[in-house]
């Protein structure tokens, strides 16, 4: 009755079905793992953003690597901006994907150390982007700033290549180590995305806080893969039953067609 399952076509179809089931189950577990990772990151970011501000030097020192738990923490610092030695970070976009720069300004603390401050986004002056752009100045004199602590940028994490031979005072990645060499000073590890004081006229454009990753989508994908895995044997059995019915129907009609016509 089911000898057709030994045919080449059905052997291949059965093997494909057998391989698909564990593959889909594994893909479901992978999506669930992604869901758990994103959920954990969202919780970590939310806790960091909700934490009370702390002095920047309580979390970072010259040469220190910012950890995952320290990332996005709100920090405060007292000092003054050194606009004479600020640089711009190339190929950065705003919320509408317009190309421009991030403005990176050294902030000299009371004890002489330097904290790198990303003051926000400005548009590029022209297609060449070879000249240093005009940048609105920050408040002068000694002030207190607050911002979100961030780790140094790397090519591995950002996908941005650290190119050489750039125009004067332009960089590709924010690296406290590289800036310490350029400034010949003690630079705190990581950098700070400025929150306050807000710029006059909203320029440079402030960088918004990080949003939640869509973890629910990964959860839905996991359920979807597992439903697909459950549907494979059901679909295989449906095809087998249909093949069997078609063969039985063909066998029943063949004798009738073979009988000679009555004279």
Automatic annotation (TrEMBL):
Keywords: Cell membrane, Membrane, Transmembrane, Transmembrane helix. Pfam families: SURF1. InterPro entries: Surf1/Shy1, Surf1/Surf4. It is found in: Cell membrane; Membrane. One of its GO terms (cellular component) is plasma membrane. It is a multi-pass membrane protein. The chain crosses the membrane at residues 12-32, 219-239. Belongs to the SURF1 family. PANTHER family: SURFEIT LOCUS PROTEIN, SURFEIT LOCUS PROTEIN 1. This is SURF1-like protein. It comes from Streptomyces coelicoflavus.
